[in-house]
UniProtKB/TrEMBL annotation:
UniProt function note: Cell division inhibitor that blocks the formation of polar Z ring septums. Rapidly oscillates between the poles of the cell to destabilize FtsZ filaments that have formed before they mature into polar Z rings. Prevents FtsZ polymerization.
Organism: Methylobacterium jeotgali
This protein's encoding gene: minC_1
Similarity remark: Belongs to the MinC family.
Quaternary structure and partners: Interacts with MinD and FtsZ.
Protein's UniProt name: Probable septum site-determining protein MinC
Length: 229
């Protein structure tokens, strides 16, 4: 006769909290124009959103249920997977949508993978170029790139960033809460720029400087860009 063992020694369920950084997509109306800008950004940099944890922040565009479902379908059609939705009315939650999120807060930098290295001096010099898909992180000071920063590549520095070639990827300076940091490049063609906690994508930048030497800095809480003589 079989004997059933009581479940008194079953291990209890364990729930542990986790915190992850995510990139927030924040559509602005009208949505067709915002989607057109997104398409243009992806055309310039097909790897822009690759490997990113993405949150859809709809606090500004305030879509109704039908518009939110249509927006999710538009993003899915572009191969963009959204992990959660922020800023939507609670009554719009549905099984077909990602979970609604609360209490999200901005962070000073994007989600990058640091390059393992020994403790470094206050400045870091990269001999040559930074290839697409590579992230260089240096929280201690300036980063100087003797070559170019390719599309899909990323540089994050606690201080300023100096690029002696073309800046075609992403550059974030002042990540150590340094609003005086600057970005300099010989050829201005970035996908994304950031200083301290302020970030701008290519479509928000001055197109007249494209392909020219430029410097970027913060002035009164705004991102300023000017040519270099």
């Amino acid at each position: 006769m079989a004997v059933t063992k009581p479940l008194t020694d079953t291990a209890p369920l364990a729930f542990r909290g986790r915190a992850f950084k995510a990139l927030a997509l924040a559509p602005r109306g009208p949505l067709p124009e915002w989607l057109a800008g997104l398409d243009a950004a992806l055309a310039r940099s097909p790897t822009l959103l690759d490997g990113r944890a993405l949150i859809l922040d709809v606090a500004e565009c305030k879509p109704d249920g039908e518009a939110l479902a249509a927006l999710m379908a538009d993003l899915a059609g572009r191969g963009i997977r959204v992990l959660g939705i922020e800023g939507a009315e609670p009554g719009l939650a549905a099984e077909s949508l990602p979970p609604f999120l609360l209490a999200g807060r901005p962070v000073p930098n994007l989600d990058v993978v640091p390059v393992p290295e020994k403790p470094s001096p206050k400045s870091l010099t990269i001999e040559g170029s930074i290839r697409s898909g590579r992230s260089v992180v240096h929280h201690e000071g300036d980063v100087t790139v003797m070559g170019s920063v390719s599309s899909g590549a990323e540089v994050l520095a606690g201080g300023s960033i100096h690029v002696y070639g073309a800046l075609r990827g992403r550059a974030i300076a002042g990540a150590a809460r340094n609003p005086r940091a600057r970005i300099y490049c010989r050829k201005f063609e970035p996908e994304l720029l950031g200083i301290d906690r302020l970030v701008r994508t290519a479509e928000d930048l001055n197109p007249t400087l494209r392909g020219k030497p430029a410097q970027i800095w913060l002035d009164g809480g705004a991102l300023r860009i000017a040519g270099l003589d």
